[in-house]
């Protein structure tokens, strides 16, 4: 972030007692910073350790020459009122209300998203719609809902094989890099629970008229200079409140003694602490503990899988390529999965009105061919695919760069639940070590879910509550469906489909 971003307020500093050891917070992403902020706000000494040189984790904002790129696109929309209140407390007047627009690029056509009945008929045509309906009825006659094991079975049972092949299969496999038969049904249930063919069709043709929160779908909050502005402002507040943040300081060891986590090794220094709140990926956490975790736990941790992610950020001569915040690319002929238009997120993200600024999102595995491709070649790939999609000529690209995000998405593969359960059975007895955040729990959380887990962890630590952190977002539904519970809004990579929105963003 640059110095041009204004700070949104200076809370009164509270000096912690000298004799009190600080709580250690591992990770400077949304969850870790939330924990650090709430602890400092209540007068508790706290140190936040961040391994990288920038805050925000996978929700950071990258800046080059005044252009800002949101890695994944992060709408700030939630049903958790306390999270929403915290957002506004941090950002104040810098929290903008922005209109939402998104579409699906499918079969060389654009479909409005959320779907609109007339648009669906026009783009799919009556013949394809009839095929889809017959496919749905065939599935309805023979399905055994509730006993599905895979994503493919779960979706096909509820929408029919035809719609699965049209709108779910290719995009989902592009996102996850494995066949849909290898993705667990739990992921589908978490993302699109309670939706079926007729509810989706009703929503597409008539809207969600019974949903008192329908209007929320059309707009969302967003920091003026991208989500990174929130994390930088929160970090400033932590420091002003007496807390400490150490950048570029990875944790290299977590010492466990007598059933408690008693210290961490960071930057070559030993730091004792009465409590640790960690957003480390489970695989990393298990590998850092001394003495070592049991072999079964280490094997479970090594077996956990992640889907990685990279953004090719491009600045182009001319007007914006499209008016949407983002478009989903359901096109098997290109590798890109989604394209962000950053000016539509916030005009302050793009300093030159004569330039377009987009982020082309690619899903990969760390170390594979795409991940290891040189940045210059990735920029050329982005330009070629824009031209192939008919969105812009490749020679309009002024400059670009690539940003790689490891461990962006925890994978719900065949064995993930058993592996997480094994790790949790070892972690639970360590009462003063709490895991929070997306990778800390290996759960496909949004930023707001991640922040909510940190809130619960601080309450457990300071108020003696016994919140089950692992239960936050355990039974999620579509987060714009008006459900008032601990299930706010989701983030990327969504599988947009005939199912109305499946919840978007990273």
Describe the structure.
The protein is of the alpha/beta class and 506 residues long. The chain folds into 3 domains: 197 residues, FAD/NAD(P)-binding domain, CATH 3.50.50; 115 residues, no CATH class; 105 residues, Polyamine Oxidase, Chain A, domain 2 (Alpha-Beta Complex), CATH 3.90.660. The protein has 16 helices and 20 strands. Strand 1, helix 1 and strand 2 form a beta-alpha-beta unit. It is globular.
In terms of structural class, how would the helical and strand content be classed? alpha/beta
Mean pLDDT across the residues is 85
CATH superfamily of the largest domain: FAD/NAD(P)-binding domain
Query: What is the count of distinct domains?
Result: 3
Task: Tell me the total number of β-strands.
Answer: 20
Could you list some keywords that capture this structure?
single chain, 506 residues, alpha/beta, FAD/NAD(P)-binding domain, Polyamine Oxidase, Chain A, domain 2, 3 domains, 7-stranded mixed sheet, 5-stranded parallel sheet, 35% helix, globular, disordered C terminus
Summarize the structure.
35% of the residues lie in helices and 22% in strands. The protein has 506 residues and is an alpha/beta fold.
